Amino acid sequence: MAWRSNLSKNLKELRILFSPSAPASSSTRVFIERNYKDLKKLNPKLPILIREADNTEPQLWARFDFGVERGIRLDSMTEDQISKALEDLAKVGAALKS
């Protein structure tokens, strides 16, 4: 998973939005619990914003160079699917730099 250490090269900011209690956000909560420390350790200067709010649909947002943003809804995704979605966003950031 070498892409994880390159997040800060391809993204300017990562935001994860979810509900602290809604069933649709359960995989997102698990993803954060299991992956946040590793992502932050590998990308210490990358802002990773965790936003909890009741009745919020789980979403993953990435901000790239020049203020370009892309978001992905995480409803009913598994932890592995969320990881793949983050990897795909990192690839988008790399493509935008080309």
Short descriptors:
single chain, 98 residues, alpha+beta, Glutaredoxin, four-stranded mixed β-sheet
The proportion of residues in beta strands is 15-25%
Which blocks of ≥5 consecutive residues have pLDDT under 50? Answer: none
Largest sheet: 4 strands, mixed
- Fill in the CATH topology: Glutaredoxin
Q: Tally the helices.
A: 3
Instruction: Write down the domain tally.
Output: 1
CATH homologous superfamily, by name? Glutaredoxin
Secondary structural class: alpha+beta
Domain Ribosomal protein/NADH dehydrogenase: 20-93
Protein name: Ribosomal protein/NADH dehydrogenase domain-containing protein
Organism: Coffea canephora (Robusta coffee)
Membrane topology: Peripheral membrane protein
Task: Give a written overview of the molecule.
Belongs to the complex I NDUFA2 subunit family. Pfam families: L51_S25_CI-B8. This is Ribosomal protein/NADH dehydrogenase domain-containing protein. There is one protein chain. With 98 residues, this protein is an alpha+beta fold. The protein has one domain: Glutaredoxin. Helix content is 41%, strand content 21%. It has three helices and four strands, in the order αβαβββα. A four-stranded mixed beta sheet has the order 2-1-3-4, with helices on one face. α2 links the parallel β1 and β2. α2 packs across α3. The longest helix has 19 residues.
